[in-house]
Each structure stands twice: as C-alpha cells, then as structure tokens.
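assembly run, all chains below
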Amino acid sequence: MYNAPITRLHPTAFVVLIDRSCSMRERIAWGGAEMTKARAVTLVANTFIDELVFRARREGGTLDYYDIAMLGYSGDGINYLVSPYGEFTTPSRLVASGVRREKIARERVLPSGRSVVAVTEQNMWIREKAAGVTPMCAALREGASLVEWWCRRRKNANSYPPTVINITDGEASDGSDDEIRAIAERIRRAGTKNGAALLINIHLARGGDGTPVIFPSRLDELPDHRYSRLLWDMSSEMPESYHDAILSARPGAAAPFRAMAWGSHIGQLAAMMNIGSVNSIML
Amino acid sequence: MTLTISQYIEAFGSDDGRFRTFERLRAVPDETGMPVFTMPGHGLVDFQVTADNVRHTLRCPLHRDEEALLRLWTIGDRDRGLGSRFFTEWRLLRGEVVLFDEAGEAFEMDVLARATPVGVPLAEFLEKAAARRDGEALAAALRSFEDLTEWAREAGRGGVTVGRLLVSPGGEMSLTGFSASDQTDRVFRMLHDAAEKAGEKAGYDFGGDKVRLVRDGGGWMYVDGRGQAVIDAVYRAASPFRGERAEVETRLGKGLIDPSGRTVLEPVYEELVWDDYWGVAAAMREGMWFLHDRGGVRLTEEGYDWLGECSEGMLLAERGGRCGFVDVTGRLAIPCAYDEASSFAEGLALVSVGGESFFIDARGSRI
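ok done. output:
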C-alpha cells in the first residue's frame, strides 16, 4: 500500500484547503521579514505548487503526473484558487495559463556566519487574502466531494491515493465538531486500491498556543484542548512510507504518526507540506 | 529529509558563498528567466549552470538520505577514470552546495557535476546533414561511431542507445550515458540510411508527422497543412503522430493507428501508451497489461498487473505484487522477484526485497 508509482496513466491528486479568514491578518516574522500570516501561507502554498509543477517537467514538456486543487475558505465562501472553473487542474494546464512572478528576499546565514540576502523570483499562483469567517466545514465538504469523485474514476483505481492538506489557524464557523468529524471521515474513507486518501490538518500558531507539535504519535503530546483533540480525530495516520521523512523533522519520535500539527510556525508548515508531497518523488 | 527544487534555485540565484569548489556559478535561464533543469527521475534533478565560465550539468538529489547519496556516490565511483573524447564523466562533489531548510537552517549537499557535452541529438544531426546533402559529415559520424562503440565495449559499462548520443556539426560523436540495453545496430542503420538518402534527395523524411490534429465538434480529427482531412474518422481523443503512430480513443476504448488511418491496435483498451522511441505500445484491458510492437503484434505472452513507462529499453513490470523488468522484445528480462523497484537509469535500477535496497544491472546482477 502507498507504493504505486506515479505516472501519467496513474496520476495522484493533491487537494489543499487554505483558511483565509480575517485571523490570518496576524503579523508574524518569517525568513527575516515581517508579514501577515496570510502572506506567509500564500508563499508556502505557491512554493508547493511550484514544486509539483517543477517535478512534472520532462524533456518533452510538463507532464500531468498530478491533479491539483487548491481551495480558499473565508468570509467570501469557498474559492477555487488555481482552477477558476472548479475541480482539478494539472501541471501542464498551470504552465500554459502563465503566472505572475514576484521577487522575494530572504535573510540567510551561511555556515561561515556571514549573513546574506537571497532574492528569488517566486511564481505567484495564488494571491493572499484574509477576510471574514472560517467556513471550514464547507471547505472540507467540497474537498471530500473532489476526492470521492477522483477516486471513483476508473482511471485512478490503481493510483497513489489523494492527499488532502487543510491549513488553518482557527476553528470552523459553520459547523459542529461532530459534523467536521463526519466530513473528515468521508475524506479518509475515499481511496484507491493503493490506499485510503490522506487527510493532513495543519493548525498554525496563534498567540498563546504554546509549544508546537507536528506529527504527534500520541494524543497526550497535544495540549488538553477540545480543538486539538478534534484535529487528532480528523487526521489520518501517516503510512509507513512517510516515516523516514517525518523522522527527519522529528528525530527520535516513535511511529505511528498522526497527520496533523498543532500550533505550528510557518517553517513547520512548509516542512509538513514537503513531507505531504514526498510521494511526488516517486515519479 | 525531502529537498525541493526551489531550494536549489535559491542557491543558484544567490551571491557567492553557496558553493564549495565552484566560483561564479549561475543557472542557465530559459526564455522566461527560470533556471533550465530536467528531471531524470529517481529523485534527481539536473540543472544547467555556467560554472567558472564553462557550461556544466549539476545533478542534485531531492532527498537528503542514505539512499539518495548512495545513488550519487555509485554514479561518481563508476564514472571515475572513464573520461574520454567520447564521454564526459560525472564528478562527485561532496558538500558542494549550501541549502537552507524550511526553518532557515543551513546544510551542505553532495552533488554530481560534469561539463555539459556539446552537440545535438543524433536524429537532429541526421536530419540536418541529409537536408544539406552533407555526405562528409555523415561519413565522419559513421567513423566516429565505430571508434565510440569500440571504446564503449572496452569500457564495459553498458549499452549505447540513440537517445544518449550527441553529435557535433562535424560529425564527432559523444555519449551522455550508458544504458541497460544496446542499440548499436540501430544507430549504424540510421547512419547508413541517412547517408544513402542524402545522395537521393534534399530533406530526409523521418516519418513526416506533418499532420495536424484539430478539434471537430465533440471530437478530434487529423488534417494536412491545407486543413483537409487525411483520415476519415473523428476520435473522442487523439494524440499527434509520433514515429508514425498515434494513440486514439473511440467510445469503445483506446487504440493505435498509423498515418493512413489503418488500425494497428483495435480501440478496445482501457489504457494505452505508445513509445515512439522504442517502438512499443503498452496496453491494458480488463486489468491486464501487454506489450505490443509497432505493427500491433503482442510481445508478452502473459499479462502483467502493471507495466511502467519504457526507460533504457526496460519496462518495470508488476505481477502478484512483485516487481521485475520486461525488455522491449517482451521478454521478462529480470523476474518479478522484488518488493519494490524503480526504472533503469544509467544502466542501474534500485530494487528492494525483504526491506533491503540495492542496485541491479540490466542482467539482474546485484551491484
């Protein structure tokens, strides 16, 4: 299980759900610069799409090894961020659609101790936004429908199963805990012959969240908090094929690992998204 | 740790201090300003860079673990001392590049580097030389290839394939890598054919493929330069002709046709992949995969649960949850005895059995 090679015939799918509610306006420091949490998450999400597109590049052009959907949820409802007409897009369609680029400066300290500013051109596939409430229930429901539809397609029956990554810094404003649990279970129940869909929930730090916990092995590693328990219940157990990657982020930890983070900072978000797409190396 | 291509791109775009041995290293940009890179597979990325004023290829791992480093070291070890006018070897550069992880912590990575071989792919050279009736360049290429094959035999590193040959405008040949299979005879045939045709006409027809695919209502059809239909059929989906074959889909399934519209493989398959380079098609029906030649003849006696894409003349095959390799003649070249396997690259395939991972060569021998 979780070992199907990813090919054009048997692509995999990534669904990313991003909280873009007003709480994401909180200012944080990242990469030597101060910015809103929404801006930092947007940069990480853009790098994530870049990586999927980059890895699909071959001599003959960009090939469609993945179906990609990225949804934002905010006071404006649910918005498809990279496929304006809904559903999935693919690396070749993204490349064909063109993208705006922005220069991003990051402060780096070299092993010699010298501090330098690295400037890179970042593809901005999505733009930042932070407004209104947090309709996470609706976003998860949309994600569940996408994943179920994708898994039902005969073409994908033997594919590497979809990965759903939900990034939030708050609680749902449109549903009860039980509703959320039920939708999360819908996502985790979908799957292919190669395994069940993976649901990774990444909770970003807000003031007073305490020590971050990523990929916990036990419930008692999390703070005794109703919401942290809810995220634990929602999240998949990470398959063994991810353990090495997780252990590089959590040296010495013991498997199994729950696909979640509590109170993580932006660097950990980026690390978790890399780990969540680790199977994209199986091309 | 999983590495990203973006981490390397940042290093190539930064000022001094990111590289141990190279000074003034810069990525070669494409027309949009993005660094030029390709993905050779197996968790590696090849960047085109200018380092110390010489064009280089940097082969960088996308994992920072023992397996990825082992792959680099194996290639570096195997290439050591093999440099010649026919082959530019990979050099292992330990701790060459400084990257930064997501938390902003610096670490060093090993990479492979080699001066980028100069020349154009063989097919392009033949087309151009034949078009300008350059019998001299074709004769030089033939002589150079004779010398190259002799050298390759002595080196004993693997086969010579069309896709790994580069030719200079004067006909000097070089090899970008060795392969699990060998196409020496095919190259000789191509050279002789091109030399013959260069004397007959200006312009060598490598299969034409001048036919365009256009949308017609709800389907696709093939038309010539004037927009006239060249095949009297409209398909639900269709691909451009490559190597005088095209994948098409009707309401019954997927099939393969030739430029006259003749059916080579009946459109009854759920999945079908045509590989014009190796001249084979892998097709699946009712869950079983078979390999076919360009004439539609089935090459594999028994079906497989899965067949991968062709790499170096070998297709990764799965049967009963175990992996092996089928060659382009349909022979099960390496039995399905492995728990996991990756496709061949540079004559090697990474396999694992019983939790142990190691490389095998095209004969299935452990390296």
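Residues 135-155 of chain B form the longest helix (21 residues).

Chain B touches chain A at residues 1-2, 4-6, 9-10, 13-15, 17-18, 33-34, 37-39, 41, 43, 45, 62-65, 98, 100-104, 106, 108, 270-271, 273, 306, 308-309, 316, 340, 342 (CB under 8 Å).

not gonna interpret more than that til we talk
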